[in-house]
Amino acid sequence: MGWVPHSVLLTRSELEPAADGVRSLAVLASSGSRENVLRSGTVDLIAIDGLQRHHVKLGLINTIDNGDLLGCAFEVMSHKRDDIGVPMQPLTFCATAEIVVQADWTSRRSLLARLDRQAEQEES
Asked: pTM for the complete prediction?
């Protein structure tokens, strides 16, 4: 049996652009997602913006293993924009106070900030 892609949905507390405007930062909690990223060194990001779908291939450039969470810094390897002429809307959900606590968004945001600071120090 061949390789099968592994999809993961990330919230805004788990994915953000780096301060340098070049890298993308993500936090992965799923052991399967962490293993796949470390094995392949790449991820595919799909983002929806009005009529356009952006398919971005990202290459892993740095990680911070925080036990239950893996912080990842990525750089863009390729970007393809598709416009099918049909308005699309990104997936949305309403974050409740309960989910913020249950998923420990504070720890995830803290790990993203550590990744960003680490990259800034490496550039200096």
From this structure: 0.84
